[in-house]
Amino acid sequence: MSGSLRFVVLLCLACLVPAAAAAGFADPPATGSMRFDVHYGSQGFKVGSAQHSWSLADGRYELELELEARGLAGLFGLQYRQHSRGLLSRAGLRPELFSVEQRGRKSEAAHFDWPAGRVSIRRDGAERRSGTLEAGAQDLLSLWHQASHVARNGRPVSLQVITNKSVKDAVLEPDGKESLSLPIGKVETLRLRAHAEDGGLNIRIWLSVDHGLLPVRIRIEDEKGGVLDQRAAAIETGRPAATATGTKN
Hints:
Layout: H1 3-23, E1 31-40, E2 45-57, E3 60-69, H2 71-75, E4 80-89, E5 92-102, E6 108-113, E7 118-123, E8 126-132, E9 138-139, H3 142-153, E10 157-162, E11 167-182, E12 185-196, E13 202-208, E14 214-221, E15 227-237
């Protein structure tokens, strides 16, 4: 075999590696719920728990996260409900609405207008800011499940991450494998990182290889160095997810 032909063969084999790796992962359960232990701060003190439910079926998705904190953590705003809903496609999740209800504050929501290519961020129904919407954009909650598509492909992607306050240009990239000791036991995971170009977003997501690449740990670090670390304590699958209606702002 000539040197040039050998190079072509090796190149073709290399291109098959991501597809072969992706084929080894099961699809995530269509419905289920997960309870997280919530740790906060650089010392990782346990401050409460969070309940996450999902439904990925019939071309649509619905996600909900309800975080309950104890003591001062709850008083200082670490108690909220997030809701995301939208469409499912071959490329993953396509959000239509992301809403946040936080104790003692007005409700906030991001509305995704895909035909117009525009996202509107509102507080108590009134628009606070807007921005151009790019293909592949995710909200803070849909990002957890969209991460599995990036893990399967094995390649980083540039995308917008929409919060209840801003639009961030970010990169979501594979970050290696890791064995985790979680409340649910030892879990083999694929680790991913989402980080914004302006430094205002730093999220690490661990996906369980044995649970259809479900997110079993999420670590969020804010601009001031504050850390919110959620670690799976229980998983239930194959049951209807909790009803999530969201806000209609």
